[in-house]
Design brief:
Helix content: 25-40%
Largest sheet: 5 strands, mixed
CATH class of the largest domain: Alpha Beta
Number of strands: 20
Structural class: alpha/beta
CATH topology of the largest domain: Rossmann fold
CATH architecture of the largest domain: 3-Layer(aba) Sandwich
Shape: globular
Strand order of the largest sheet: 2-1-5-3-4
Length: 611
């Protein structure tokens, strides 16, 4: 990260240099690599291991170029520009070297392209096509490295790994979970958890950032499309689906629509075409989450200051991170379930009773931006009255595959409304999908709960923006509380360490495990090749801005003003934090330790006692 800061300082200085690429002179900022410089002047250099600002290691050798004066070809992603540099990107020697590097990767790659989940959106496939590779002259034994899917969220196919180390880089540098490392040597090398364990057996938080970073199908979400189709086809089942706020501004990308397109109405129409019996908006229970979490905040501020800071709990990746790395903070986590679990619990209780439906017949499906939601749905705590809150979670990508399977022209679908009673939501419920959105929504309602008055201006600008860690303060009546926003698990670590050391104090903190929040979740659209590498994490800004624009246009912008929320409390819950609310809307957490597999082994052998 020191190198990154140094590069940014050089770029910020604004110094320009002249370099020559393929016979033409260009002025580019000093501090860029040759690869970045070429792309700024619209010269494409292929690469596979490169991920801007995250993984710049020159490992794949696909981005090699000729540098005048250098004896060997150089990896352009790590070669810095300088005044007078002469670069050639398309010589016969360069093309031959790139083609050889990719051909060697393909020679030991299980090439099931037509049945692969990443078909037509695979960087290895795209690079091979652009280089004109039509046959693989290198033959021999193809190793079988194994397939691991013993967890509910992410599967790992080592036979499709190209050792680019992008998963390792994003897990170590951004998420700071340190799940992956290189194991073994030579042709036996794999990038894997310790002892090549399944992700369920290590301190993986199931966030899926490694899935977004992977250029092939070596890491993918665990697909549940077949199970959902079976449920829809079963005449004895009532299949209910809900959609998270961020899905409404991301799924359009998978059908060629501009980034940030608001497509809630088309999304509802598509889900009805697929055969779902009820289509609900998770945004409604996002409002409900704010009512419960805001009430928790008020209770602790006024009566239980020893339980501060209150830490948000709607992100399952963050919850699992805390369970592994910061179990001492678990009493500080809000006990409120995430919005999709709340919606599932209410659907099989209050809604089923209101409509005289046997909840045993109901199948709850959630369309989520996140692979960790699959893990969350499988947690033992996520059930009420002996029924699972959520039966299946589909990512944005999985839903897009279902829509394509039935041949729907998504951009041309008419807009349709969500089904009652999970149909009306506030702007506060909508901004849940962006980092800082939960905090901002909570502040809007906490102000009302504590002072009895509405905030004069609902926008809380200090919570917004893409800075990984933000601190601020907000006045609630005669109280001024300090707040924090962290997105990316590594930033949560920094905030908690600062709190433990006394360097920082805060009363409330929102944490999202994924950079950018839910709009950058591990189940969201995977940008293809150049877009991902060139834009790095910055594309999440556009998605978040779309959510804030929708919020600004809403007549109701505060969760407590939502008439559906008022109805749910009036008819079922009574009031926030009531006994009924605690039964259906709250949960508990489990300390897991940094080395869960070793602990499981110790418990099995009787070395330690289980709690």
């Amino acid at each position: 990260m020191e190198n990154l800061r140094e590069k940014e300082e050089i770029k910020a200085a604004g110094e320009m240099v002249t370099i020559n690429i393929d016979g033409r002179d260009y002025r580019v900022p000093r501090g860029l690599s040759v690869l970045e410089a070429a792309r700024t002047v619209n010269i494409e250099i292929p690469s596979l291991c490169y991920l801007k600002d995250i993984n710049e290691i020159g490992a794949c050798r696909v981005c090699v170029v000729e540098i005048e004066g250098a004896r060997t070809l150089q990896a352009s992603c790590v070669y810095p520009v300088r005044e007078g540099l002469v670069v050639r990107t398309n010589t016969e020697r360069v093309r031959r070297a790139r083609k050889t590097a990719v051909t060697l990767l393909l020679s030991n790659h299980h090439r099931e392209c037509t049945t692969c989940i990443r078909n037509l959106n695979c960087e290895l496939q795209n690079v091979a096509d652009s280089l004109g590779i039509r046959n693989i002259p290198f033959t021999g034994e193809m190793k079988d490295y194994g397939f691991f899917d013993h967890n509910p969220a992410i599967q790992r196919d080592y036979n499709k790994c190209i050792h680019c180390r992008r998963c390792l880089a994003i897990c170590n540098k951004i998420q700071e979970c340190y799940v992956y490392s290189p194991l073994y040597r030579g042709l036996n090398t794999v990038i894997a958890p310790a002892f090549q364990k399944d992700l369920a057996e290590v301190s993986c938080i199931m966030c899926g950032q490694c899935v977004l970073a992977c250029p092939t199908a070596s890491l993918t979400e665990k697909e549940h499309i077949a199970e959902v189709w079976r449920a829809i086809a079963d005449p004895d089942k009532l299949v209910v689906v809900q959609t998270a706020p961020s899905i409404q501004v991301t799924i359009g990308e998978l059908f060629g629509m501009p980034m940030g397109s608001f497509v809630a109405g088309k999304l509802v129409a598509a889900l009805r075409h697929l055969g779902f019996d009820r289509v609900f908006a998770t945004d409604v229970t996002a409002d409900l989450t704010i009512m419960e979490e805001g009430s928790e905040l008020m209770e602790r501020l006024l009566h239980q200051p020893e339980k501060l800071p209150l830490l948000s709990s709607c992100c399952p990746g963050w919850v699992k991170y805390a369970e592994h790395f910061y179990p001492e903070f678990l009493p500080h986590l809000s006990s409120t379930k995430s919005p999709h679990a709340m919606c599932g619990a209410l659907t099989k209780s209050w809604y089923a009773r209101q409509h005289n439906i046997d909840p045993q017949r109901m199948v709850n499906v959630a369309i989520m931006p996140c692979t960790a939601k699959k893990y969350e749905a499988a947690r033992p705590e996520m059930e009420c009255d002996g029924l699972r809150n959520i039966d299946y979670v589909l990512t944005t990508r999985e839903l897009a595959r279902m829509i394509r399977e039935v041949g729907l022209n998504f951009p041309e679908l008419p807009d349709e409304p969500y089904d009652e009673p999970f149909d009306q939501y506030s702007g506060a419920g909508m901004i849940f999908g962006a980092t800082g959105g939960v905090l901002e929504a909570a502040v809007r309602t906490a102000h009302k709960l504590i002072t009895g008055r509405e905030m004069s201006v609902p926008d809380f600008e200090e919570a917004r923006g893409q800075s990984g860690l933000k601190y601020g303060s907000v006045k609630l009546g005669d109280k001024t509380i300090t707040v924090a926003v962290a997105h990316g698990a590594g930033n949560a670590r920094r905030a908690l360490e600062a709190f433990k050391s006394g360097e920082r104090r805060f009363d409330y903190m929102e944490v999202m495990a994924c950079p950018g929040g839910c709009v950058g979740g591990g189940g969201q659209p995977i940008l293809s090749g150049r877009d991902l590498k060139y834009l790095s994490l910055s594309y999440r800004h556009n998605r978040a801005d779309a959510l804030y624009n929708i919020d600004r246009g809403k007549e109701i912008r505060r969760s407590h003003e939502n008439p559906r929320i008022q109805q749910i409390y009036r008819e079922f819950l009574g009031q926030p934090l009531s006994e009924v609310a605690r039964k259906y809307l709250h949960t508990s957490y489990v300390p897991r330790g940094r080395h869960p597999f070793l602990r499981q082994e110790a418990e099995y052998r009787g070395v330690v006692e289980t709690s």
